[in-house]
Every structure is written in C-alpha cells, then in structure tokens.
Design a protein that fits this description.
This protein is an alpha+beta fold. The protein has 6 helices and 21 strands.
Length: about 375
C-alpha cells in the first residue's frame, strides 16, 4: 500500500471479521463504486492472485456456498483516519486457473447492502394511515442487524392517507418500493457506509447539497493542482418545466400549476441556471391529491435541472484524502463559468499496491459560482 494508507478487509456472515494475513497478502486490487440515486449501483470488486496450492482455492468458495449473504467490509485508513469505503455482500465469484508461471486469479464481486433489501418480495403488505416517511422508516428498521440507521427527511407536503379512502400497499421488494417512493418525490435513497465500521446510514431525502464541502479539486494551478483530469459539459436541452394538474372539486376540472425553478429540493449551486426548453404536463396528477401532485412535480423538476456535468480523476496521495460521493466539493482553476461548488454523484476508488486513485462525476444546476471562493 501507499505510505500513510492502510487497507483493512473484513468478511463474515452478518458481523464481518478481519481476514487472515494469507488472504490480505493475496489481494491484488480493490475497486469500489459509491453512487447516489439514479447514478447507478454501488458495489465492489476484489481481485486475488494465488498459486494452485493456496487455501484461497476453497476459502471464499466454501464460505460463499455456506453463507448466501457473505458480508464484506472495506476500510481504508489515511493518515490514521479510518474511512469505510464499502459495506456490502458478495454476489459473484469467478476463478481463472493459472498455467505455468501465471498465477490463478479469484475475482469477488458484490453490491452494497441495498442488495439485502432486494431479495424478498413483500408485495401487498398494507401501510394504513402511514405517510411516506413512516413507511420508509419501518422498512429500514427490518435491517438493524446489518447496522442500518435510518436518516429519513420529511417529504414536501407530507400527507397521511385516510384508511377509509385508501390504504397504501407495498409493491415489490423493499428496495424497489423505497426507490419508487423516492422517484415520485424527487428524493434519493442510498446506504452510506460508516461513519464507524459496522454501521450504515440509510438515507432517504433530497440530494445532500448543503453542509461543509470537501477540499477543492484544483486544476491548472501549478503545485496546487490535485486532479489528473477534469472536464465539464453544459447541456440544457433536457431542462424541463413540469406542470401538475390539480383537480378542483368545485369547478369540476383540473387546474394546471407550473412548478417554478425555485425548487426546495434543488438549492442553487450555480448563479446562472439553464433556460427551460421543455414543458411537461403531468396529466396523471389530476387523479392525485394536491399533496401527491406537488411531490411528483417537485420530483420531476429536481431530476431535470442539473445541466452542468463534470468528470475527472485524481490521485489520493496528492489530494490528501479519499473523496466521498453524495457530498459537496469545490472546483477551482477551470474558469469563471465552471468554478465553484458541485454535488458529487459518484466516486469509483481503485486501490492497488502503491496506488490509490479515484474517478468521479459531478453535477450542478447552473453556470458561474454562487460563492467568491471555495474551501481549499
């Protein structure tokens, strides 16, 4: 590993334990992806090299066969500060036998703990008089054994259904149902590993675009440059103004109400927002209550306003810490239009012996920074 960087690998059925030294010595590379919301799945891949006589031929294979949910935890310690990169379960194993001087290779692939929530179909389970927040909290509570701690943000215009009118029912697996509720509300659902090993924050809420940002990503700044690459695109052709239809019982016909750009789910990170190029009429909202229609309209608006996208890579040794997804980060050195604060949608960490690099994707909803400086 790199000087000042220490990797810890823990494996076990429900409570993982540190792997033997023989396993850690055989570890060749680690890849971890953490994504927010619709950016993609979060998961990991471990690659081991070993000889034909190594116990690794049977350790993981037997463990995986006997334990359908083999939990894997990856912790990286940088300058004495531990950080949980991934807490998930193993889903796939692949062995490539060696020949001659070429060693055998074992590749372990897995997902984060959302995979545990996607195994059993609970369709039809009723939730009488329970608003969205209560349903999500109840579902997450099933997985306390995996250290899941619910962080549930109340939805805009919360509403508890009246049992005599309607009783919400579960649809699909726990993960599918929570993701459906998140999509309808403009929220995200993901599991953030840590902060302590063995614990996880199950977050249901709007993109986390508030709080203390991480150290700035710097380019073209001489000795202060800490990014290997960074590029941006501005795409406004998909910016949408949603119009919800609210049924008026007195007039007998629906009233169209546009959802403005001032969206509480999307605090501005750019000074000049993208212009609206499309108008989408959500006709099915006429059958919903005003609260449900408003939540759906805000959700559509929230997903269509991030016109600025960025992608890049960095060396952790030069950056000084591991970049975390689902948080804010500053950018400097790109120019007036693209400097400023960004939301980190995803981070992929690749660890090899003597190397720790990360690739990342960023987004925000406008050009030109709203802040004069960004934290270094």
């Amino acid at each position: 590993m790199i000087k000042g960087v220490h990797l810890t690998l823990l494996v076990g059925p429900v409570v993982p334990v540190p792997v033997p030294k023989i396993v850690l010595d055989a570890l060749d590379s680690v890849t971890v992806t953490n994504s927010a919301g619709e950016s993609g799945d979060s998961g990991f891949q471990l690659s081991f090299t070993f000889s034909s006589r190594s116990p690794l031929n049977t350790i993981f294979l037997v463990a995986g066969a006997q334990t359908p949910l083999l939990r894997v935890m990856i912790v990286v310690t940088i300058n004495s500060i531990p950080q949980v990169l991934m807490d998930g379960v193993m889903t796939h194993q692949e062995v490539q036998p060696g020949s001659g001087d070429t060693p055998s290779r074992l590749t372990i692939t897995g997902n984060d703990l959302t995979k545990v929530m996607d195994l059993q179909d609970f369709g039809g389970l009723p939730y009488p008089a329970m608003p969205v927040e209560a349903r999500v909290t109840t579902i997450i509570g099933k997985y306390a054994a995996f250290g899941l701690v619910p962080v549930v943000i109340p939805t805009p215009a919360p509403e508890a259904p009246i049992p005599t009118d309607i009783i919400p029912a579960h649809q699909g697996t726990d993960l599918e149902y929570i993701q459906m509720l998140a999509w309808e509300t403009g929220y995200e659902f993901y599991i953030e590993p840590g902060p302590a090993p063995g614990t996880n924050l199950a977050y249901f809420g709007p993109p986390h675009k508030l709080g203390v940002p991480q150290p700035a990503l710097s380019v073209d700044m001489g000795p202060h440059t800490n990014c290997e690459s960074l590029n941006f695109t501005f795409e406004s052709s998909e910016t949408t103004l949603p119009v919800v239809m609210i049924q008026n019982s007195l007039l007998g016909f629906p009233i169209p109400i546009p959802i403005p750009k001032l969206n509480p789910l999307q605090p501005p990170l750019g000074l000049i927002p993208a212009s609206v190029t499309n108008v989408t009429v959500l006709r099915d909202t006429a059958k919903m209550t005003p609260s449900q229609a408003l939540r759906k309209g805000l959700g559509v608006a929230a997903r269509s306003q991030d016109a600025v996208k960025g992608n890049g890579s960095l060396d952790v040794a030069r950056y000084g810490r591991a970049l975390r997804a689902r948080q804010l980060v500053g950018v400097r050195g790109v120019g007036l239009a693209y400097d400023g604060m960004y939301y980190i949608e995803s981070v992929t960490s690749t660890i090899k012996r003597g190397e720790f690099k990360q690739s990342f994707s960023l987004s925000r909803n406008g050009l030109v920074s709203i802040t004069p400086v960004v934290p270094v």
